[in-house]
Amino acid sequence: MLTTKTAEHIQEQKATSPNTLRVGVIGYGYWGPNLARNISEVNGAELIQVVDQDPKRQTLAKKRFPHIQTASGIESLIHNSKIDAVFITTPISTHYEIAKAALEAGKHVLVAKPLAASSKEADELVRLADKHKRVLMVDHTFIYTRAVQKIKEIVKRGELGDIYYFDSVRVNLGLFQQDLNVVWDLAPHDLSILMYVLEKEPLSLIATGARHSHSQIENMAYISMELARTIMAHLHVNWLAPVKVRLTMICGRKKMLIYDDLEADEKIKVYDRGIEVSKNNKEGLYKTLIEYRTGDMYAPNIEKVEALKLECEHFVECVQEGRRPITDGHTSLKVVRIL
Amino acid sequence: MLTTKTAEHIQEQKATSPNTLRVGVIGYGYWGPNLARNISEVNGAELIQVVDQDPKRQTLAKKRFPHIQTASGIESLIHNSKIDAVFITTPISTHYEIAKAALEAGKHVLVAKPLAASSKEADELVRLADKHKRVLMVDHTFIYTRAVQKIKEIVKRGELGDIYYFDSVRVNLGLFQQDLNVVWDLAPHDLSILMYVLEKEPLSLIATGARHSHSQIENMAYISMELARTIMAHLHVNWLAPVKVRLTMICGRKKMLIYDDLEADEKIKVYDRGIEVSKNNKEGLYKTLIEYRTGDMYAPNIEKVEALKLECEHFVECVQEGRRPITDGHTSLKVVRIL
Amino acid sequence: MLTTKTAEHIQEQKATSPNTLRVGVIGYGYWGPNLARNISEVNGAELIQVVDQDPKRQTLAKKRFPHIQTASGIESLIHNSKIDAVFITTPISTHYEIAKAALEAGKHVLVAKPLAASSKEADELVRLADKHKRVLMVDHTFIYTRAVQKIKEIVKRGELGDIYYFDSVRVNLGLFQQDLNVVWDLAPHDLSILMYVLEKEPLSLIATGARHSHSQIENMAYISMELARTIMAHLHVNWLAPVKVRLTMICGRKKMLIYDDLEADEKIKVYDRGIEVSKNNKEGLYKTLIEYRTGDMYAPNIEKVEALKLECEHFVECVQEGRRPITDGHTSLKVVRIL
Amino acid sequence: MLTTKTAEHIQEQKATSPNTLRVGVIGYGYWGPNLARNISEVNGAELIQVVDQDPKRQTLAKKRFPHIQTASGIESLIHNSKIDAVFITTPISTHYEIAKAALEAGKHVLVAKPLAASSKEADELVRLADKHKRVLMVDHTFIYTRAVQKIKEIVKRGELGDIYYFDSVRVNLGLFQQDLNVVWDLAPHDLSILMYVLEKEPLSLIATGARHSHSQIENMAYISMELARTIMAHLHVNWLAPVKVRLTMICGRKKMLIYDDLEADEKIKVYDRGIEVSKNNKEGLYKTLIEYRTGDMYAPNIEKVEALKLECEHFVECVQEGRRPITDGHTSLKVVRIL
């Protein structure tokens, strides 16, 4: 599990850090500015260059980080010998080409999720990274949140008992990119959380979706999966919902957990509730053989730290120490295969 | 749509009501006491007898309604010439036999949902009621809530525009009867609301469910339906959830509606939100052809009246005026067919 | 603390109960029907008569309880030798006269809160009950809720540490009686909870209120109290609020508790949060001497039982066993004195 | 009322802006980084220098804005001729000295709220700003939120009718500065909102507060104010609450408004609820002369823009166009006087 140094620790470390990781960001649209801001604040890293086709976006980046270089094409960045690592937040269809070029130029790479538009492409990127001994990390930001780390811990120590199901609703109004459907946009979050927390992969899958008359791409989908013979998983992803919901239920034989990412303080609630099979059935008609148990609920305290910052720190550490990231190409490849 | 007299009106009517409908209740377990209490408070009706196999339940009924008769077997009630109507809240497997006997004895009948355990049985009950010219009503209580009536009104006047989808989550911990699975227990609520509000029936259906090791019957299910070519419906019903959720989203081209039955005051929220196709796409990479529109939300005031009381009143009116109930055997037959 | 038999226990007890307490209810307006329904369902008690000036209300009572007597004047009830106890839910200004007559006629008495319109009247009723050796109980219903019982238990075992403050907001739109202001209507709830849970009485009090142009009586008030030298209590009671709020915070040195009576399941939340004085202050300008501690939260499971039923059972037990009620005249007298 | 250009507009304007306002920030603790980030992103402004006594904070600032100067003492900034404006976010006790020096050096000044530690000091700063014809703005950030702007608009157009009361609860766990009590920390927010929205000042005031044994300073307070003869205002500010609450009710004769700043989407709800005096009272005992009216609720859509950015833009405009800020020294002086 991810262990992170305290802010104090990091600040002190900074002064002594010998080699600074020099980073370039490709794509300064919706997510790029967040990556740029976080990596620029991480000790041991420095933001050097931002690339975006749109001059307006370049101006914004320059305004925000007056000391960096900006450019329209990726060439100047890929072949910039002063850059050690490339963060890619361009449309999915371009991930493969850009990541390939960067890896081949010897850069470490962080790619926005999902890794690539097909499992063939994803597979090749994973092999390229291995071949060139470079870090290839995929930006599954949720894995780095304190909440998901806490859920992993609770599940791993068996507090929930045997897992019965994983149910997730991730809906809101609107999308951010035009070259993918809702499943490619939203489902990677839940799939990566699901596989990370339960350490299981889907065996079978049924998906139903809808595109509405105005649109060529699906804007809502329901995905049912079987994880093991007894574990059911279900995702509801939707761009056409009036309100934002990010709600996951993980229910086990012993306890049940609800993760509401929109709650400020009580993101995780663990309910001491479940069922027990009773031996006999004296009461007759109105009692059942199954007993429902209702106990207390508790909400573990979750430290407030920006996940993207922890993720950027993790990237820097993986490069410095030659470690494999939690969300490396291999795990992300599985997500792409499912999609 | 249901129009209901005000409480004042009803009270005055009572004195002048010529023929009182004399009612017997069969089954005094979980739901029977509610039916008994409500029918005993409706003008134009009188509770005469309660039947239950369990002597303890008879004692409870007698304590609560000292003036009524109680019995163990249904015979005394079915052949009681002082009784005009029978309310049946026994396990589903017995609905058919009891309702058949009651209809053939010339009684009007209210049956707990679902009408019967098979569409063959349901079909025969519908025909029997028609043949004997008796009222056969099914207790789809939600249809009589002010909230569902308001939703019907909003959808009918076209406020939401063309409907895109109907999504409902109805989960909680625990079940009330041992002879049916979660779909037969919970889904009739959503199916009856769905068909009543949208005036459409499912064309196709995919369901996935799970029974967990302890149990012989499904305790959770996901049901995807196609209502018309462009309308998708999805139900999540679950007895194994840590918290109670009753949440329905109905989204249309123009507006979107959320119905949260657990909210005290703001059960229905209508969002002036949606999508519009934009004609051109000057902005390039980061803008999409689809525009999302976010406007105000409003929550219509919902009068607080017990739905079961309105339903009992509706039953009495249908008998007195020879009218067909909103939730008659025909509509409930459709629900049973889908199940 | 209140201990209550399980439903099973009570049912069995019923058959063996020797002497049934025969009860009459005076006042069948807003609250009377609730008292009548609950006492009629309690083992060891029987509803005999309902008195109300309004013939319409009598008709409603008769419809609901066909076996009881109804009357307009209290005389027939007070002097009815078949009645052992009187429940009084008339306007406050009449409590004294009616309760006095009932006690002098040898009846046990339950009075709606507050006990009387002045502490002089309340004081005399308390003395009368003592003199005639009759139970005089005041209907502070909240004290009998499982939630308040649980809070009492948590505070009593010292889980919160030394209490710092008690803050309660009890607001909604509308009032139920015309002869009292908002303080007399709503504050008795909080005062009775406050004194029951903390076992302390206010030493000093500042109240500010407002009546708006349309009204002769206060419709909102803020009350600040000092309970002990270090405990502060504050009530906000209001009839002119757009939403209903019933929220109490009890904060102690070790933990903090929130009681939200409108929550279905998680009425009580206990937060392991607080402050600690740190010894030194090395960090300088931006650190303070006081450390804030943020830990987990838990919500104890609260059994769902109607408080009014428990209260009616408690009344019957007190009469049968000659015990003093939790909410006897003495405690209620303190509430009236504060008001 | 504040009118703000759209993001598009601002971006284009940037290229053409002739004179850039050069800004220095004094104090880089909790709030300083937010001010620095926002002013650095505003068109027409540039961040030049950050001053903080703590070398660690200087390092953080330099990491974040590599192109700026940092220093320990304010002298280098105050006498830096390349700086046009100074943002002050130091402890309150130092506001007066620093702001005075800056104004006398011809700088425009933005000061964190409250303006100064006494009304005498505040008064002198206001006079100094007038004398030197410099902008003196106080950072009452809430005034610049879209939510408060919307509330102002709703109240100003008379939608709520005559105002009856303003009730605000602003509680949380923890404080940020050690040299002031909870009233000086939290109440300025509500006082500035209150006076801005209602355009009225308190006529009288009662405050009760508590400091707990560990502490020399008040950590909770209740403040009751009379605004006009019929308008009541009440604030509850508290550093020792288990949860964060920011909830304001503004109730008028016609409608009622709730502002919940912690809601993501529905920050403002307007309830068509109120009271009406009825002419007669035929019903007798259980009806009152006052009728309560319950209608629909609506939640106006609130655009999501960072208030601090709008505030920084407003500061730049006021300097460029010689305008008086919405939250100028005069209004803030009133807040200080009340405190």
Give a description of the structure.
Four copies of one chain form a homotetramer. The first copy, chain A, has 339 residues and is of the alpha/beta class. Chain A contains ten helices and 14 strands. In chain A, the strands form two sheets. In chain A, strands 8-9-10-7-11-12-13-14 form an eight-stranded mixed β-sheet, with helices on one face. In chain A, a hairpin with a 3-residue loop joins β11 and β12 (256-260). The longest helix of chain A is centred in the middle third of the chain and has 17 residues, at 182-198. The first copy, chain A, starts with 6 loop residues before the first helix and ends with a helix. The interface between C and D is large, with 58 and 59 residues.
